[in-house]
Amino acid sequence: MWWDDSLLVNSGRSRSRSLTINPAPPMAAPSTFLQGPYRFVLHYIAGRPWQFGALLLAVVGAGGCAVAVQYVMKLLVDGMAGPREASAAVWSALILFVTFIAGESILWRITGWLACRATLGVGVDMRLDLFSYLNGQPMRYFADNLAGSLGQRLTATAGNFGALTNTVVWRILPPCIEFVGALIVFMTVDWRMMLVLAVFVTAVTGGLIWFGERGRPLHRTYAGHAGAVAGDLVDVITNMWAVKSFSARTREAERLAQGFRREALAQRRSWLYLEKARALHDVALWGMAGGMLSWAVHLWSLGDITPGDVVVVSTLTFRILNSSRDLALSLVETAQYVGYIEDTLRVIAQPQSVVDAPNAKPLVARGGSVEFRDVSFSYGEARSDTVHELSLRIPPGQKVGIVGPSGAGKSTLIHLLQRLYDVQSGEVLIDGQRLTEVGQDSLRAALAVVPQEITLFHRTLMENIRFARPDATDEEVYAAARAACCDSFIRATPEGYNTLVGERGMKLSGGQRQRIGIARAFLKDAPVIILDEATSALDTESEMEIQRSLVRLMRGRTVIAVAHRLSTLSAFDRIIVVKGGQIVEDGTATELRQRGGLFDTMWRLQAEGLSVDDVVENVA
Predict the structure, then answer these.
(1) Spatial separation of the C-alpha atoms in residues 389 and 391, rounded to whole Å
(2) How many CA within 13 A on the CB side of residue 493?
(3) Considering only CA atoms, which of 348, 119, 136 is closest in space to residue 227?
(4) In 10 A of CB 609, how many CB atoms?
(5) Quick one: DSSP state of residue 586?
(6) Could you tell me the sign of the dihedral formed by the alpha carbons of 567, 410, 602, 575, in that order?
(7) 3 state SS of 128
(8) So what's the pLDDT on residue 23?
(9) What DSSP character marks residue 570?
(10) How far apart are CA 157 and CA 337, in angstroms?
(11) Residue 523 · residue 484 · CB < 8 Å
(12) DSSP secondary structure letters along 78-109
């Protein structure tokens, strides 16, 4: 034999041993900038200081020009109201008026250009950073969260940052700049007017912010309904085959309609609340504007101010009060955008449970030996161990089959070997190197995995096969496809290897998808091959042909195959029988049948047409 029975534990014999208990898996806290929406936003602003600095200067300049235009209008009116002999002052004011209008227009166009470059650039960086962090999450995370919802959150976060930037640039900073400029202008007219304007605008803006904050639960409820409906819609579209197969089109449409109605109701409440704020502001605007204009006319009648002063007071009052409404509502919207970003970070920036050690080194593949040492693992604290104190050693180049009922721990062993999860106790090694001490990417580069459910990208067949090794030549791709018995059906398609496979490969049959997955494994040329029910969707003839390819192409490589069809493992060097998270039998197919144990019973009953699960249930 190629293995040592003394290394086999959990064969039914009681044995005392020292057990390596691992502490709780380390949780990698997200980077500092992911730990809050304000840090998150400031991180990207600080990353582009020149762009955002220039943007701020452009906005300040444009706002200053807007106030200067109003003041020059006062000079123009006063000049025209004076003697005609002083027309030089009128023409000078006119030139200044036109110059400031042109300057404001130019600066706003520069602002738009800078805002476009800055926000779009940040949007790219933001999505890449969030995706880079997201792909470090364990597979359980992706099982708990809808893919469509996660994708929408990534895209929406970049959009929310853009909306936040635009709101600040176009609707918050300009009113603030114009307000400061208006106070300076009013100071030249009458300091009492300046004081009244400052107090009133501050009170109105503060009141609108307070009123808007009271409606924040309505806006949050609407955002929650919108996110849930969007995720549900993507989920239904993704599972359209099931919807059609179970005649559920009407049922699902009605279920979605209920969600849409709840979303619309929440949106209506949020929308109408903002309309109430606008109505209250309109009342305040009417009162303040009328009062300030009446006051200015009264001062003019007393000869205390000029006609130009009356004009500038009226225009700036209307402008500032209108801007105060936009400012207040924009501040509320800004809080909403920050809330949306915070919600995304709450979902995506969760601590990562499977992380590389700080001093992790690349895995050095020397031959492909695999070892499990006293490994225990469960998917939840409330559940019993899926794998319990299991030890197993597979020498380099050995082809090992793993069989057992559903829930016995077969696929869990495969997941632990890929380090999709970390063990609770014990350790897993490849070529004598602990998986927790090597980089995850280098580990998975040494493994070629063919799962039972093959997922393909919505790309061409050539791209899907070459995904395993991007630098592979076309001839190498063709050779892998021939070995996996998929070259013939690929060439029979209208566009051959350039055929798009559809979302998740839905244009292909289950068997065709499995063959593509096997071709990827052949092309990867890794020292350890993992087959998790890799041929379950194939017909017997194709399966036998692929098995022959496996024997030929995988010579000298370690192969670990999980299978329900026991006959597919007859040519393997060794078969492991797993039950209840423990190894109960170990040997070649011939040896295990001669022993007359569980494997033999499973073999005989499966030959009569029973599944492995039925077999084990009968044996139990």
Answers:
(1) 7
(2) 17
(3) 348
(4) 7
(5) E
(6) positive
(7) helix
(8) 44
(9) T
(10) 9
(11) no
(12) HHHHS-GGGHHHHHHHHHHHHHHHHHHHHHHH
Burial 4-20 (b: 16+ CB within 10 A, else e): eeeebbbeeeeeeeeee
Residue owning tokens 């350039």: 498
- From CA 442, how far away is CA 432, in angstroms rounded? 15
Q: What is the mean pLDDT of the chain?
A: 77
Confidence of residue 58 (pLDDT cuts 50, 70, 90): very high
Q: For residue 490, how many C-alpha atoms fall within 13 Å in the half-sphere facing its CB?
A: 27
Residue type, 237: I
pLDDT value, residue 18? 39
Cβ atoms within 10 Å of 355's Cβ, excluding its own? 18
CA distances from 442 to 357, 437, 526, 550, 587 (A): 13, 11, 11, 24, 31
Model pLDDT for residues 521-561, shown as the tens digit of each residue: 888 888 888 888 766 656 666 666 666 666 666 677 888 88
Burial of 263 (0-12, 13-18, 19+ CB in 10 A): buried
Q: Strands 582-587 and 574-579, how do they pair?
A: antiparallel
Instruction: Name residue 582's beta-bridge partners.
Output: 579
Pair 576, 402: CB distance under 8 Å:
yes
End-to-end CA distance of the chain: give it in Å, rounded: 30
CA-to-CA distance for 275 and 66, rounded, in angstroms?
A: 28
Nearest to 189 by CA among 317, 306, 281, 357: 306
- Are 70 and 319 spatial neighbours (Cβ–Cβ below 8 Å)? yes
Question: Of 200, 208, 176, 202, which is closest to residue 275 (Cα–Cα)?
Answer: 208
The pLDDT of residue 387? 84
Q: Which amino acid is at 217?
A: P
| Residue 434 parent element (H or E) | strand 433-434
pLDDT at 477 over 80: yes
Q: Are 450 and 563 in contact (CB under 8 A)?
A: no
CB 268 within 8 A of CB 226: no
332: number of CA atoms within 13 Å, CB side?
A: 27
On the question of pLDDT at 606 being above 80, the answer is no
Q: At how many degrees (to 10) do helices 216-238 and 147-167 cross?
A: 140
pLDDT (tens digit, 9 = 90+) per residue, 168-227? 888 888 888 887 877 787 777 777 777 877 787 777 777 766 776 676 677 667 766 776
Q: Which residues of 477-497 are buried (b: 16+ CB within 10 A; e: fewer)?
A: bbbbbebbbbbebbeebeeeb
The one-character DSSP state at 506 is T
Which distant-in-sequence residues (6+ apart) come within 8 Å of 258 by Cβ? none
User: Which pLDDT score is estimated for 540?
Assistant: 65
Model pLDDT, residue 21? 41
Contacts 24+ apart (CB under 8 A), 477-480: 477/519, 477/523, 479/522, 480/519, 480/520, 480/522, 480/523
Domains of the chain: 33-348 (1.20.1560.10)
CA pseudo-torsion sign 140, 152, 468, 404:
positive
Q: Copy the structure tokens of residue 615.
A: 């077999």
> Which residues fall within 8 angstroms of residue 285, CB to CB, at 6 or more apart?
318, 321, 322, 325
